[in-house]
Amino acid sequence: MWGIHKVTDPHAAQNQPDEEESLDLYEINTHPFIIQIWLEVSAKEDRPAVWRGHITHVPSNTRRHFQDIKEIIRFIVPYMEEMGIDVDLPWPVDNG
Question: Is this model's pTM higher than 0.90 or not?
Answer without folding.
Answer: no
